[in-house]
Amino acid sequence: MAQIQGVSVDSVVQSGPGLAFIAYPQATALMPLPQFWTICFFLMLILLAVDSHFVAVEGFITTISDLFPKFFRGPRKHEIFVLIICTSSFLVHLTLVTEGGIYIFQLIDFYGSTRVCQNVMAICECLAVAWIFGADRLLNNIADMTGQRPLVFFKLCWKYIIPLLSLVH
């Protein structure tokens, strides 16, 4: 594409939603059988989105259902809960297809996938596992499941090393 347009590769390909909806469709149009490759590409995007959403919703529903098992034992309570979660998720994501949806997407894309966000999540997970749940308790659970107690090194990593290294940029 850069050769056809007579420009450098940096000016043709830019990150963000334009990459998926402008650059790749243009690239597939230059291939032999462009209709086939375009259908394959957009089918891949749709399946990737549906699969990612399915995993996120199922993980959330399973977590809540496991936390409150007595609440979901009644007839149709679990199905109603799933309906509420899916409907609320639909309404929240509906903002992404409005006129200002691309701006909301760019905010999520820019601030949601930064190294700072990942480091904060790593610190919170390590603190929750090592200090709230308890590193010794986790080691005992792993020993119960696998028959072998993990090394003390893992306990040190969960409690001290990973949170400290996550704070360093």
Describe the structure.
By secondary structure, the protein is an all-alpha fold. Helices cover about 80% and strands about 0% of the residues. Helix 3 packs antiparallel against helix 4 (about 35-65) and helix 7 (about 115-145) runs antiparallel to helix 8. The longest helix has about 35 residues, at about 35-65. The protein is extended. The model has no long low-confidence stretch (mean pLDDT about 85).
Name its key features:
extended; 8 helices; 169 residues; mainly alpha
Unreliable spans are none
- Please state the average pLDDT score: 86
Instruction: Kindly report how far apart the N and C termini lie.
Output: 37 Å
Q: Choose one word for the global shape.
A: extended
Please give the count of helices: 8
Overall structural class, as computed from helix and strand content, comes to mainly alpha
Strand content: under 5%
User: How is the quaternary structure best described?
Assistant: single chain
- Please compute the radius of gyration using only Cα atoms: 23 Å
| Strand/helix succession | HHHHHHHH
Tell me about the biggest sheet?
none
- Count of beta strands: 0
Instruction: Determine the fraction of residues in helical runs and give it as a percent range.
Output: over 70%
